[in-house]
Specification:
This protein is mostly helical and 116 residues long. It has four helices and two strands; from the N terminus they run H-H-H-E-E-H. It has a two-stranded parallel ribbon. The chain starts with 11 loop residues before the first helix and ends in a 5-residue tail after the last helix.
């Protein structure tokens, strides 16, 4: 049984971008153990918005870790559960799309370029 669509392999540059993303200080590594697996199945069963096994694992992990926000690019599915599922501490989980990364400030040397 096929759970998710087969995707095309990422380019080497795409792999590097994901590796850099995963090294950010706000990324929390987690082990997907039996507890997360069971919670994932239950979430998929009880919430139609949680359609794919990867969605269930993502959501179950966020709930178990009591994260403040769970970010997803999955605009049609998991966002519908924003404020509707309880974290392990009993508080509702905020689910949202990530905000764009702000551009770094312009280099001071660039400000004066062309004014010589």
């Amino acid at each position: 049984m096929k759970c998710e669509d087969a995707g095309k392999p990422l380019s080497e540059e795409g792999d590097k971008q994901i590796e850099l993303l995963l090294r950010q200080k706000w990324i929390r590594p987690a082990v997907v153990d039996e507890r997360i697996g069971v919670a994932s199945r239950r979430l998929m069963r009880h919430h139609p918005q949680c359609k794919k096994p990867s969605d269930g694992v993502h959501l179950a992990t966020a709930l178990a870790l009591n994260v403040d926000e769970m970010h997803t690019f999955d605009g049609s599915d998991l966002l519908g559960l924003d404020g509707k599922v309880n974290r392990a501490d009993g508080k509702l989980l905020k689910i949202c799309a990530p905000k764009p990364t702000p551009k770094p400030p312009q280099d001071q040397n660039d400000m004066f370029r062309g004014q010589e």
